[in-house]
Amino acid sequence: MPWGVSRVQAFLANPVPLSQPTPPQGKPSQPQAHSDRPTCWFQLTAGSDRLDGFRCSVTSRVNSNGHTVFDVVEPGGLSRTVVLWESREAEVLVQGETYRGEWAEDHEGDIRVNVNGGVFAFSPPN
Predict the structure, then answer these.
(1) Domain 7-17+36-122 carries which CATH code?
(2) DSSP state for residue 87 in the 8-state scheme
(3) Per DSSP, what are the bridge partners of residue 97?
């Protein structure tokens, strides 16, 4: 991946057809210490079902409109704000741009977001 291009920017720039949500792969099947477990996963290859795990900072807050939003900051520092609507629609705000997509919750409580043909997932804070 080119220097300075975030994982989110890479998949937003390379749309692929949406597929049915599946749980992120590459996650531990046995519980691990909280500090060892990835908190975000990204599709690094367009069209792949595999999501690679990383340690992101994930926080939630209530915005000025009264909506719960998630702030996901990837290891390189790029921040995105994610709004999940009851209709299963998602809005992802990255560097002043708004992307619309769909979201689903997997069996472990992680949130998987399909946006502009790319996929990422994150663990909401407890």
Answers:
(1) 2.40.128
(2) T
(3) 94
